[in-house]
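[User] Could I get a sequence and structure tokens?

[Assistant]
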Amino acid sequence: MVARTGLYAVLAANVAVVLYFFFAAGFASNTLIVLGRLTGLFGALLMAFQLLLVARLPWLDRRIGMDRLTSWHRWTGFSVLWALLAHAVFITFGYAQSSSLDPVNQLIDLAETVEGVLRAVVALGIIIVIGVVSARFARRRLAYETWHFIHLYTYVAVVLAFTHQVAVGTSFASSSAARTYWSAVWGVALGAVLVGRLVLPLWRNWRHQLRVSAVVPESDNVVSVYVTGRDLDRLPARAGQFFLWRFLTKDRWWQANPFSLSAAPDGRTLRLTAKAAGDGSAALRHMKVGTRVFAEGPYGAFTTMHRTRPEAVLIAGGVGVTPIRALLEELHGHAVVIYRVATDRDAVLYGELVELAHAKGAELHLVTGPPVPDRLAPAELSRLVPDITDRDVFLCGPPPMMNAVIGSLRELGVPKQQVHFERFSLAG
């Protein structure tokens, strides 16, 4: 809550500063041009805020979670698109109103005669393309790597848009203080991306020198990979978090896959457990011991850091048991574990859960059967955990199962702040 409030406060403060410099510059043009300049400023400010949301800064990520930050980034991105489209329309029609040119020829004239306008047109074109491929209908049809490659052109658009604004923006042309402020805003946003997305991962991987130490099949389609390295006791990873793993083989080095830690970090070894759901995860079974690993992270707010009650309920579905198993290892206080699978054969790591539950005095319930009827409906959850409203609830599993359980918890009256979950959601 503190981190979220802080982000809103930062955005609100910058909106106030932008408005101050906007009004200080005065209004020497018609209404359409004034609106165009204002939407351009807000569009650019939101773009800088958008970069901050996906900078993967540890302080924000551990308190908010990559899934929520990515969701905010997505909706902020569409706001940026509409703001910059409005900027282009208002400016073009505003100048056309003051001249004898039609809007199309007015835009061509501006691009040919005004410094930076052509760069702005190119930047807007890039942002439109990125907006289209980020829409759900397109995103579902693109491989993550393809979408990510296209998304990288955002940084080209950022540079073009920034140089355009500083060159011709009325608020900046008339005030050195405004130019200094705007440069600082973009310096912080781009600096955060550079540190969080490049410097910190490179530093950690150079320091820890990660390698595969063992590959252990857990079932026909599930495998655990053990990773070791130097000074892992100084890697700030916690149970419930995940990494973006790159296994540096000839055919897979370019793929990054998000896998949770399936055991609490012990300072010597990291373990991930994955189900074969695609080529990348299926290839883990054939990974050779000694393979170099490049891991980005740890990421995620799905940790005991956010506990509000001394007792907990851990609810897992399918391979979503991996962070749940790690959390059980780390949790203190009485815990109830509910593991939802279709059949007993699907209960990955169940033997480890039994041993951990016995050692920690936790209750363990294996719930089997088809998805319908819902076996984690409110009545069943209340039967398994009569005092569920007095416990923290940690939830991980397939999206349909998670949505159903969240609905059940809502019906049972479990306070929202006691329900902890995280979805894997990556942003470029």
